[in-house]
Amino acid sequence: MDHGGHGMTMDLPPFTLGRALEYSPDLFFLISCLLGLALYGWGVLRLRRRGDSWPVGRTIGFTLGVLTVALVMCTGLNDYGMVMFSVHMVQHMIISMVSPILLLLGAPVTLALRALPVAGGGRKGPRELLLALLHSRYVQVITHPAFTIPLFIASLYGLYFTPLFDFLMGSKAGHIAMMVHFLAVGLIFFWPIMGIDPGPNRPNHVMRMLELFAGMPFHAFFGIALMMATEPMVAAYRTPPASLGIDALADQNAAGGIAWAFSEIPSVLVLVALVFQWYRSEQRQARRSDRAADRDGDKELAAYNAYLASLQSRGR
After folding, report:
1. How many CB atoms lie within 10 A of CB 171?
2. In principle, which of 45, 47, 208, 299 could form an S-S bond with 52, CB 3.0–4.6 Å?
3. Whole-model pTM?
């Protein structure tokens, strides 16, 4: 299928799952996905060659994350997403809420820090520049909840309920920029909450859960607003091609239902990941405490027992 000269798709046959999953690549995302997989694979191989291990689960997570991006941007879903609001919403929800979670579970920044060589000699190579970025004021700001939560909300209301969406849909470059924005917003939002990679803003697990649930109600309200609307709200989808055989308002209501449903599914996935990470963190802390006790002969416990003995002797 051809996306057309400026990103708007010409008449398409009625939507079916088979047609939606046909190979129809967007070159920008195809090259980006292949490059991402190649760089990640290079990092894993580099670790293995020097005898270091890298969890298979992380590799699987990152690979699935890249494949979900390719699924929505390099198939017929991307063609139908140009003329069907419901299909576009599937793209948006996957690339902003599923792909980021999987990519972050792959810990690509940690892999890069372990795989990239140290420049040495006071020079700054890729590894040193990455470390400087992680500790920069810029990253501290964009990963703070006061920034991530409003950005997450504004990416819905500020985009779809203003002329900005129609402007971006009017060109291929605009459409690509919009989808990259969705992916970036998802990564920035979920990174401080459940990302494995190091970051400047990493609150305790309870606060992470609060951050997660702070943004989700606004996501649900957005979906409900689309479902309850009595007329098409987005000009780009107001007059779908007759060849599709769909009603614009019904399609918009379906898009709202998809947005509402996706406010729940990723929340459950992230909550499970958070609970697992919390458990692993407690286990590591317990092991550190045991090792410390072995080293000092458990002086803390001995001191506490001596304190109890002194109390008992006073009571006699």
Report:
1. 14
2. 47
3. 0.81
